[in-house]
Design goal:
173 residues, globular, two-stranded antiparallel sheet, Protein Transport Mog1p, Chain A, alpha+beta, 2 helices
Length: 173
């Protein structure tokens, strides 16, 4: 399955010789809450917000966890970041979710990441003065999603965002 992205020659493909695509690896059964980014993983300038998302698994999901944080500077919000981990019944369901999301976002700037079985960074135009980015990836039967909305002037770098995804992915192994 392939999805074309911004550049006409760039293709996001889920095909390859990865063992997990063939079902050779057992599914991850660790609780989603153990794989999510917690307050201890972030710099102290990020404060946890109550998450409004229901942590009840939906159809096809085994487990779900979410966490949301806000970056404050002089009592002014500079950014928000959310982390989601969804454990699916099998690898195919996780792949289908990632491919579905990427296909819906194909008009945005997409960058393939060497992260888990497959990963992508998505950049979108936000409100004036804001940047919006997302990192989505799968590791076996687990789907990870990080969404960031921050002031354009904030120094939240792509490498930092990817490092947060790598922490999540490392907890999925």
């Amino acid at each position: 399955m392939s999805i074309r992205v911004v550049e006409p020659e760039t293709i996001f493909s889920m095909e390859g010789n990865d063992r997990s695509l063939n079902g050779a690896e057992r599914p991850i059964v660790r609780p989603a809450r153990e794989m999510i980014i917690g307050p201890g993983d972030l710099p102290t300038r990020w404060a946890e917000l109550p998450s409004r998302a229901s942590e009840q698994p939906r159809l096809g999901q085994r487990d779900y966890a979410a966490a949301k944080y806000v970056l404050m500077d002089d009592r002014k919000e500079k950014g928000q970041i959310s982390f989601e981990t969804i454990v699916y019944k099998d690898h195919k369901m996780a792949v289908d979710v990632l491919v579905g999301m990427v296909s819906k976002m194909a008009t945005l700037k997409l960058s393939r990441l060497d992260l888990g079985d497959a990963g992508v960074m998505i950049e979108a135009e936000g409100k004036v003065g804001r940047k919006m980015k997302a990192v989505a990836f799968i590791e076996r039967n687990v789907y990870g999603l990080i969404m960031l909305s921050a002031d354009s002037a904030s120094n939240i770098s792509d490498p930092w965002l990817i490092s947060m995804a790598r922490i999540m992915a490392s907890r999925m192994r």
